[in-house]
Amino acid sequence: MRAYTPKDNVQAKPYYTDRFWVAPQVAKQDVSSDAVFEHDLNAIKAKFEVLDAYIQVEQMVVVINAADNFAVLEMLKNECAYNQLSEMSAIDWLASEGKFEIFYQMLSMSKRKRVRIKCKIDENESIQSVEKLFRSADWSEREMYDMFGIIINNHPFMKRILMPDDWEGFPLRKTYPLQGDEFAAWYEVDKIFGKEAREIIGPENRDPARIDRYDTERFSRLGHEVPRGTDIRQGEPDTPLVYQETEGVFLIEKFDAEKSVVISDRHR
Amino acid sequence: MAQHQVNYLKDGGLPVALTTIDKVVNWGRSNSLWALTYGLACCGIEMMASGASRYDFDRFGTIFRASPRQAELMVVAGTLTKKHAEFIRRLYDQMTEPKWVISMGSCANTGGMFNTYATVQGVDRVIPVDLYLPGCAPRPETLQYGVMMLQQKIRRESASRAQKPKRLM
Description:
Chain A has six helices and eight strands. Chain A is about 20% helix and about 20% strand. Chain B has one domain: Rossmann fold. The model of chain B has no long low-confidence stretch (mean pLDDT about 85). The chains are: A alpha/beta, B alpha/beta.
């Protein structure tokens, strides 16, 4: 008999890992290859600690400490003319590094350059809001809280933006199941009918292709209808499809082609 | 004088039609189905097209209303999210009896391709549905055919007050 080796609950792991697969990397260039970026980077380095800096796809990426995020963005806005925060969000690296990566994508209209500021925070760490600098950060930070559970300090309206206010869980974390946890599965039933209705309504059908042709509780065929809940496994009554009731509808006459008149003279 | 006299035994007979209360009431109900505007996603565009001039829903007496108090038909056209589920239930409850629901398109029927945490897997988990229209999205002809089928269903129903309201549970 083989010796038992613990499998570390591989079923629960969110990733399929291939030992021989190497993630393709976009080529990085040194910041000194671009004079404008080099000047901006030196301006940041003069005041703040820079952990890493490189150019990728003609955009400069600067990795800073999470505590400096507001001051760095303020400096880039006021001194380096990066006057637009075009995008910001977070990336879940909890499985590999135990950290969230937060990135700010900045655009300078006058320089026609883009800079990405990155920083990393721990799972339970909060980060300073940049909403005072860029109004576009307002909803983005709320979304970040909604989807990742990252708490933003000094935000004027820290509330969920996409999911309902009473939602539990943060759906964009890698550990969140795509089809939802138990709370998500019963959310609408619990909210509208109450928990006691769970048994009556039943679990969600997650296989939309599943059709039981004998199920008269949930399916009906147009023109072959039977009362709800009838057992039709032994054959069903034949009710053919008709477009109008055979005896006609009250006050509505069937169109008779024989009686119709074709008007050929348009000036009559 | 006599030439204006109507001969009630000829030419269409008496100006009297004999019928049942059920038929008269259901005739009225089935031919003036006022629908609540409920476009939730791309199916809503097809629903709007059904109401516009090319397909012309007014021919069927189906006029879209913006208030549930004035509507008796709810065409759930599109993806129902879990956040919105309580509101569709509230609007359904606000509609006056008798009321009917058409679930239009794959998303409203089963959740469709949105097999995710945020989508209600079939609108029939929240409100009782009379008619399911397949398609992604169903064309306006399909919706018109569906409404005609619903008209037939209404004409077969009993119009009496004793008719119980439909319940999901």
